Amino acid sequence: MPRVIWKGAISFGLVHIPVALYPASREDEIDFDWLDARSMDPVGYKRVNKRTGREIAKEHIVKGVKLDDGEYVLVSDDDIREAYPRSTQTIEIERFVAAAEIPFVHLERPYYLAPINKGEKVYALLREALLAAGRVGVAKVVIQSKQHLAALIPAGPALMLNTLRWAGEIRPWDELSLPPAGRQAAGLKDAELKMAAQLVEELSAPWQAGDYSDQFKDAVMALVERKSQAGDTREVTPLEPAPEQPGSSNVVDLTALLKRSLAGGASGKAAPAKRPARPAAKAASKAAAKRGAPARKAARRRA
């Protein structure tokens, strides 16, 4: 089972459907690691102060919005919650529209919705009603502290929530050099349209997602396999050994994360005032000097 991202309810009119939100897509790209070509050491990502070049702890990072005059307004998570205190656990359907009316360019990320808390019957009722009407719900929802516009879409046995890009996120085509819309305005002849329609018809087929694959990824992974079989590999020593965990699990080790966070935070906090410990070599040198002090004093007296 995929992890639950969010729990809440679909709401429209007096209808209230308790649901859980699950991811419906996954990243399936080639996982390239960055390596130093000179030493084969892993190259990691760090939070770095751009002025000093020094790494900084997470707790010292704040959110800032840059103004036109170059100054910043600092905004905390509490400020954001107070500025928009509305419930974040509701998918608020504002209207129902024909699915074909939403342009593909607005579609962003799909999620599955599953009924919880005995909401199966009303969940199925909304799904079947949308299928019969050929419509989808347009809703607003807050996911992970960000408000999204979304479409509630029936798909087989599921209701899906597909986040949509806001109108302001879509670039206009005004600055592009495009042929005018319409066959006459574009100067198209009937014979040309007929041949184009014939070609479209010949290449038409029902949509089957399994008919398509990422050929670039397949080719690169085949290359990796050939290099591996030929012994063309390099050894990379991890900077830190991975912690041993019993069995395989997708659950984040919270204890390890807290320990790393505390270790990172300690470097950025002011240490309590105390006398710093002397390096071993320096301390040994001073001890030797003390042992030799009486001999030097006697030598001076003889002189």
From TrEMBL:
<dbReference type="GO" id="GO:0003690">
    <property type="term" value="F:double-stranded DNA binding"/>
</dbReference>
<feature type="domain" description="Ku">
    <location>
        <begin position="53"/>
        <end position="181"/>
    </location>
</feature>
<keyword id="KW-0234">DNA repair</keyword>
<dbReference type="InterPro" id="IPR016194">
    <property type="entry name" value="SPOC-like_C_dom_sf"/>
</dbReference>
<keyword id="KW-0238">DNA-binding</keyword>
<comment type="subunit">
    <text>Homodimer. Interacts with LigD.</text>
</comment>
<feature type="compositionally biased region" description="Basic residues">
    <location>
        <begin position="293"/>
        <end position="303"/>
    </location>
</feature>
<feature type="region of interest" description="Disordered">
    <location>
        <begin position="263"/>
        <end position="303"/>
    </location>
</feature>
<feature type="compositionally biased region" description="Low complexity">
    <location>
        <begin position="268"/>
        <end position="292"/>
    </location>
</feature>
<keyword id="KW-0227">DNA damage</keyword>
<keyword id="KW-0233">DNA recombination</keyword>
<protein>
    <recommendedName>
        <fullName>Non-homologous end joining protein Ku</fullName>
    </recommendedName>
</protein>
<comment type="function">
    <text>With LigD forms a non-homologous end joining (NHEJ) DNA repair enzyme, which repairs dsDNA breaks with reduced fidelity. Binds linear dsDNA with 5'- and 3'- overhangs but not closed circular dsDNA nor ssDNA. Recruits and stimulates the ligase activity of LigD.</text>
</comment>
<dbReference type="GO" id="GO:0006303">
    <property type="term" value="P:double-strand break repair via nonhomologous end joining"/>
</dbReference>
<feature type="compositionally biased region" description="Basic and acidic residues">
    <location>
        <begin position="228"/>
        <end position="237"/>
    </location>
</feature>
<dbReference type="Pfam" id="PF02735">
    <property type="entry name" value="Ku"/>
</dbReference>
<dbReference type="GO" id="GO:0006310">
    <property type="term" value="P:DNA recombination"/>
</dbReference>
<dbReference type="InterPro" id="IPR009187">
    <property type="entry name" value="Prok_Ku"/>
</dbReference>
<comment type="similarity">
    <text>Belongs to the prokaryotic Ku family.</text>
</comment>
<feature type="region of interest" description="Disordered">
    <location>
        <begin position="228"/>
        <end position="250"/>
    </location>
</feature>
<dbReference type="InterPro" id="IPR006164">
    <property type="entry name" value="DNA_bd_Ku70/Ku80"/>
</dbReference>
